[in-house]
Amino acid sequence: MQRNPQLNANGELQHLLSIEGLPRELLLQILDTAESFVGVTEREVKKVPLLRGKSVFNLFFEPSTRTRTTFEIAAKRLSADVINLNIALSSQSKGESLLDTVANLSAMHADIFVVRHNSSGAPFLIARHVKPHEHVVNAGDGRHAHPTQGLLDLFTIRHYKKDFTRLTVAIVGDVLHSRVARSLIHGLTTLGAPEVRVIGPQTLLPAGVESLGVRVFHDMRSGLKDCDVVVMLRLQNERMRGALLPSAQEFFKNYGLTLDKLSVAKPEAIVMHPGPMNRGVEIDSSVADGPHSVILPQVTFGIAVRMAVMSIVAGN
Amino acid sequence: MKLPEAEKLCEQLAAELKPHVGPKSAMVGLYTGGVWLAERLHKLLGMKTPLGLMDIAFYRDDYAARGLHHDPKRTKIPFDVNGAELLLVDDVLYSGRTVRAAMNELFDYGRPASIRLVVLADRGGRQLPICAQHCGAKVAVPDGMRLRLKRIADGALRLELEDAA
Question: Which of A85, A130, A292, B48 could link A271 by a cystine bridge, Cβ 3.0 to 4.6 Å?
């Protein structure tokens, strides 16, 4: 059997490329470590010396504000030096290949590459070519995976609901284009969530999504019934090719989360969204800013989770 | 080889610490054994300031060689470190590296007025210029062995030797 490309010979996390295939113990190690880092981020000096002298290169081949910023903050709180490269504006536009770019940065003594790329699999390609002491963290590749977002979603769910083994979780909207959904589904099933649902129009659900172990709903009210956790996805206009939807208004009418639709979920249900939100498209402001929303805590937890991931991979 | 009785050392330490506990005193225990000892001492001394708990995983000096400790606990310092007279509590003092890391972490919370180190047992072998102001007992530990504090079923504390490997 081929070894999981994320793990070293001792089964430790060398790169974080995808939640898929990571054992339960490793996911729990990341979540537990993040829990300790939440303590660090709440004190006056929000820094620990773990990655002092290490260099983290943020390689963003696709625009991102929140993810890039939270990775930058996380690396700085670990005392690493951070270099942000906005590749769209640099050498790649002059024709340099992905691996040449990475080889050049490696020659500048990088320790961690945080990679966001619009092609699925790009971080895997980089991980196969880096030196043994270098680590790759996937910050989102195409439609494939966004493991740190999945992990911070898991962290948020555990924070509010404590235990995965009794939860019903609904993931709503544009699952087809969502790398967040895929990462979260793998994480939830690995950690023992008994019922994961996806809700959306046929055109925005990937063919054969049931094979991931989820229940499929096309109607919001039946899908949201008695849910503990509702994860709204962003309608990804920039990834849409062709006419998958009549209109944003039509989508909101059927699948936009309103207080009325949410009322069939459990009264203490939490509502999450990976951001950036399209208010009035997939989520109504009354929900986004309402008592069920944990959307902003998700962002805060994202820093602790990324600190955990970087400090674990860089130590292995 | 006979090891000193942890329970007795604990009471002995509490008696020794009594004159050093004042209104500005606060206590911090280091996970895991140091927290058990600190919980005991904190109660015996009737200290008013809540007990601080510290895991030095993020301040260790062997991260580059050994990576991150697998199950770090969350450090909780529920008082203002600035100006506090701290009693830093650990179970066994050996190389001194844990204490170095703990002091670095404490200073990220503030500037204490003073720190006194309290340990149940000192097994020698210091690699850093650190010594305990309050030490229950000096214990000679054979090469290749480790001295550890254990908490047994009824909550009693006991010193034990185990293979270092």
Answer: A292
